[in-house]
Specification:
Elements lengths: L1 H78 L1
């Protein structure tokens, strides 16, 4: 009877240990999921900001190019 009880206790301890390990892994996965979601949101925001900055710089360069062409046209008109 003693051996049966000891075996039962050992198996019970193993089951408890495995359940704790499972719970820790589930918690780690949930934390990883939250972290990944935050990182994804940060990345999307960064890409949106970068696209806006790029568009603004492109428009600014286009306006500068147009202004330069206007000045060149005026210079050519004065030379002629």
């Amino acid at each position: 009877m003693f051996l049966v009880e000891m075996s039962y206790n050992c198996i019970k301890e193993e089951i408890t240990g495995l359940q704790l390990k499972t719970n820790r892994k589930q918690n780690a996965l949930q934390e990883s999921d939250v972290t990944l979601e935050k990182d994804n949101n940060k990345l999307v925001k960064f890409i949106e900001d970068d696209n806006k900055t790029t568009d603004d710089a492109s428009k600014k360069a286009e306006l500068a190019s147009q202004a330069r062409k206007n000045v060149e046209v005026q210079i050519k008109a004065l030379d002629a």
